[in-house]
Amino acid sequence: MRRSLVATAAVATLALAGCTTGGNSGTSSTPTSGAASPEAVAYMDKVCGAASEFAKIEKTAPKFDAGDSAKLKADMAAYMGQLADAFTKSAEGLKNVGPSPVAGGEAAVNKMSETFTSLGAVFTDAKTKVEQADANNANGGLQAAGEAIAKLSELADPLRDLKDVPELQKATQSAQQCQAMQRLNITPTS
Fold first, then answer.
1. Are 174 and 41 in contact (CB under 8 A)?
2. CB–CB of 168/102 below 8 Å?
3. d(CA 183, CA 178)
4. What is the rounded CA–CA span in Å between residue 116 and residue 109?
5. pTM for the full predicted model
6. CB–CB of 184/52 below 8 Å?
7. Tell me, what's the pLDDT at 19?
8. Is pLDDT above 90 for 99?
9. Residue 2 has pLDDT above 50, yes or no
10. 63-67 contacts: CB < 8 A, separation 24 or more?
């Protein structure tokens, strides 16, 4: 049982590490003709600033001690809570970026916010399941933690919803917050 518990936690940490710190830097594919308007660049600064908040929140992955299942359970619950808070903060930030200067921009940003909201709910639910689980039963709440972390693939490119809004995609190349987001390695090249 303990081996399964540790394996579940290890898979969870590796999945998260691949999402938030790995990958290539860059943006989604963007049109090459013309420059984005200053309004679009300013808007994308707000969008990228809000979207990258989840990467800025301290998230401490559980330390794996095969001899202390109760501690691993508590640490995993805290970790799930940190992730839930991080995604919820980004979702709220995206809801507050204001109107888009480009047609279709608000719909794309609303879709991004829904993705972050959904991930926040997934991690909140996983935290509850971990807290309620028997620490010696990896098929309980700790499996829920692994399943929640597997959902992070939905965020492999947080700006993917902009694919139908070429001017905003173009604006990511000039927007300072989008460039900072790339340095955090959370927007892989498509």
1. yes
2. yes
3. 9
4. 11
5. 0.73
6. yes
7. 38
8. yes
9. no
10. 64/6, 64/9, 64/10, 66/2, 66/3, 66/6, 67/2
Q: Which of 12-16, 117-121, 152-156 has the highest mean pLDDT?
A: 117-121
The CA–CA distances, whole Å, from 89 to 13, 57, 120 equal 21, 9, 9
- The torsion angle over the Cα atoms of residues 128, 131, 133 and 135, rounded to 10 degrees, is 150
Amino acid making up residue 135: A
Q: Which two tokens stand for residue 52?
A: 């990258």
Residue with tokens 């109107």: 99
- Dig out the tokens for 176 from the structure: 């300072």
Which among 158, 159, 169 has a CA at the least distance from the CA of 35?
A: 169
Residue listed under structure tokens 């070429």: 166
Segment 59-80, tens digit of pLDDT: 777 777 666 777 888 888 999 9
> Cα(149)–Cα(83) distance, rounded to whole angstroms?
9
Q: Which spans in the chain are helix H?
A: 2-20, 38-51, 53-56, 69-95, 105-132, 141-150, 166-171, 176-183
Q: What is the pLDDT of residue 24?
A: 34
Tokens representing 98 are 């204001």
Total length of the chain:
190
Q: What confidence tens digit (pLDDT) does each residue in 25-57 have?
A: 333 333 445 788 999 999 999 999 998 877 776
